[in-house]
Amino acid sequence: MSLLEIENLRVEFDTSSGVFRALDGVNYRIDPAEVLAIVGESGSGKSVAMLALMGLLPKTAKVSADKIIFAGQDIQALSAKERRNLIGRDISMIFQEPIASLNPCFSVGFQLDEALKAHTDLTKKARKDRCIELLDAVGIPDSKARIKSYPHQMSGGQCQRVMIAMAIACSPKLLIADEPTTALDVTIQRQILELLLDLQKKTDMALIMITHDMGVVAQTADRVVVQYKGKLMEEAPVLELFESPKNPYTKALLSALPENAEGDRLPTVSDFVAG
Predict the structure, then answer these.
(1) Do residues 92 and 174 lie in contact, with contact meaning Cβ atoms separated by under 8 Å?
(2) Which of 165, 175, 235, 265 is the Cys-Cys partner for 134 at CB 3.0 to 4.6 Å?
(3) Which residue range or ranges hold the ABC transporter domain (predicted)?
């Protein structure tokens, strides 16, 4: 049985130039303990889809779907309060730009504690112990002192680790990582990916990795969904996708990898996809 099933998800925004359709009937499925990569260029609707699931799109967005089922629950039938209780406890998300996502006015310990206070019955002391345990789990040294630090006192990589700690605080069944290595140097990118995969294996949580980087897909995913202009182009197990892509857009993404270059010029999407 799938952990999450989404059918015919559509998202539209009213703009000054008319209605913009960000998602046009996409389907997603992820099983327990599976790693699913959603890949595509900027503007393909990857983040919008997950924000729609989390209920975090602005009120101006028009969201509809034939089905959104998580762990047997119909999310669309939940009240606002029931959905808030579910989000953050059973489904968590790591957002892009960790420094921008953390509140500069509060210590990282305070921000970790907020999630625990909202979704658990732990005592104040137990929550503090859990915060220290979480910082240890994501590889932040001297965690007892670091819970008093503010985001500006930490590096970008450390802030990303704090975001991961916040996301796993309540042991979610599904973790969504939205471009988790954006703006980090190559060495730190690898560390963050290894950390996410290690946590995923230890806890058996499902992991959705949103990325435009096919190298990240190859390192992390069991299965891949490829999107373009708000539509699903292709879905396949990761090895099958890399060895025999079916859709022209998928072929374009793979051909644009530096290691696949022929001559001085890399192919572009327009070489494969019209319109």
Answers:
(1) yes
(2) 165
(3) 4-254
